[in-house]
Amino acid sequence: MKRTRRVLYTCRFILGLCLLVCSCQQKGAKVQEQLVLQDDLGRELKLNKKPERVFSFASSMTEMLFAVLDTSTIIARSPQDDYPAAAALKKPTVQNYPVDYEQVLALKPDLIFTVEGITPLEVAERLQELGVLSILSEV
Q1: How far apart are alpha carbons 31 and 122 in whole angstroms?
Q2: pTM for the predicted model, two decimal places
Q3: With 60 as the cut, is the pLDDT of residue 27 above it?
Q4: What is the pLDDT of residue 117?
């Protein structure tokens, strides 16, 4: 049961990420509307533009990002990220426990992907207060 739930959450996350990438692929066209996403905790996230600078605090999310995104949009990694091999080559390494807010803000990410349990909700909310959106997954 728990494995089935995890697979469903993973599939839902990948589908949502693919929709996000596809909806933002129109080059040269200005997007007039906000893209509104909802993470697995029910938080509503509003994006005004295509995310061009992303990273993940969770290794599982990093693997998914490398699978579905242009890797030039992935701007950093967490200390635990070593797969795929290209992830281990990404610099800088962002401290995810405890979160180094100054380092995160210096990177100017458009979006951070993470997993509930790796990143506490309080950290995600603090990042949002600082102007950095983060998508929390239950994967």
Answers
A1: 31
A2: 0.77
A3: no
A4: 86
Please report, for residues 17, 24, 26, 70, 92, the alpha-carbon distance to residue 30 in angstroms, rounded to integers and kept in the order given: 20, 10, 8, 20, 31
For residues 115 and 61, what is the distance between their CA atoms, to the nearest angstrom?
A: 8
On the question of a cis peptide bond just before residue 84, with omega within 30 degrees of 0, the verdict is: yes
Q: Cβ contacts of residue 54 below 8 Å, gap of 6+? A: 65, 69, 73, 74, 75, 109, 110, 111, 112, 113
Secondary element (H or E) of residue 78: none
CA 115 to centroid of chain Cα atoms: 9
Give kind and range of the element (H or E) at residue 134.
strand 133-137
Instruction: Spell out the residues 6+ positions from residue 88 whose beta carbon is closer than 8 angstroms to its own.
Output: 77, 81, 82
Tokens found for residue 20: 């996000």
pLDDT in tens, 85-107: 999 999 989 988 899 999 999 99
